[in-house]
Amino acid sequence: MQSNYEIARKKLKRFEEESRYCGETTNDKTIGLEVESIHNSEDMFGMPNEIDNYDVSRIEHLINTPTNAGNILTHGHFSTVSNIVGMATNESVTNHHTNCLLQDILRQNKSTLKDSNTGIQEKFRNVFNNFPLRCLSDVVEMEEKLKGSASYHLMKTRLQQCGCSANLNDSVTSMLQTLFTDECATFYNFDGKNNLKNPFKESTIYNLITDVTLTFHKDGIEHDVKTRIRSWLRLASTRISNRELTKNKNSFNFIVIFELIIEHAISVNKKNAAYMD
What is the pTM of this model? Predict the structure, then answer.
């Protein structure tokens, strides 16, 4: 007949095997640590000659305790796992709420920015309603409006929205095209030499374009802005001539094509008439 010691030893061995299997399959570090502590207790039963030195109550407890390690883990260790899962769930819920809050803030910012842009456009149309400038009188009116700080700031904001790009020269060109027609630009050159044209460098519009450009392009210099404006004003007449040539060429091509269609129709009619005869 087996002694209490032998029965306890067998139960403990079976418990360790089942516990090790549960620890490996769950991949839970907490369970693994608990199982390891049981491995360390093996020394308690590794020396039969010293059985009297151990806690007999622990052996009796093992004898009277079911050997289903799953039940032991459920009652003894799963509370720790449950706490970990609860913490992870709470963190997930917190992250979800945080993401929702950030999305709401982004939507509100986009809505605010859209409303702001719409408001600027409406104010712009109310104050500056003659763009692009087509003649000298339009420029004079524009210069008067820009003397007011509110109008100046409004125009600056609007040009920043629609005129600035990655390249400094492109930014300056875009703003000039927004402000002037080529016909109006022919009344100006940059320096106003020989009193033949108006000096663009003395206008508030020039200061405005320079202000917007150098605010957007931090590494830009005023000399680059001057060079681009000077070139654009000088080539205004050339752009007008090129457009006229293109327009005339397109008109000529249309006339030629139309004449060819008429000639073809006449030729077909003659052939049909000859066939009928």
Answer: 0.50
